[in-house]
Amino acid sequence: MLIKLKRIYELPEKSDGFRILVDRLWPRGVKKESAKIDLWLKDIAPSPDLRIWYGHDPEKWAEFKKNYTKELNKKKDLFQALFQSNRKIITLVFAAKEVKYSHALILQKYMQKKLDNYESEEL
Predict the structure, then answer these.
(1) How many structural domains is the chain composed of?
(2) What is the pLDDT of residues 77-100, one digit of tens each?
(3) Residue 71's domain spans which residues?
(4) Which of 9, 12, 68, 113 is the most exposed place for a label (fewest CB within 10 A)?
């Protein structure tokens, strides 16, 4: 399984595969019909308190990453169905302007690590 990232403001493409919106709030200015979202996983996004505290401040990135990972560790059940779905490509769709400080980047790396572990257990 390939896990990709894409801003919701970029045009959807067939190469995106299964598109999952990973933001808690629907992005401004985006019509649901044109977004081509297959699944909206609101609960996988950072908690409202963590999101507000972070505010996309690069100086808080390290602590945000640690706290968001702790939250993800409590939501493992959300990943199981995705891993068992045998999808070839999943694209995590998000609204943040800066990819390198986006929760989606943390989520992508987290999912890839969990997927690697899941696949090794299957062998």
Answers:
(1) 1
(2) 887 777 777 789 999 999 999 889
(3) 2-122
(4) 113
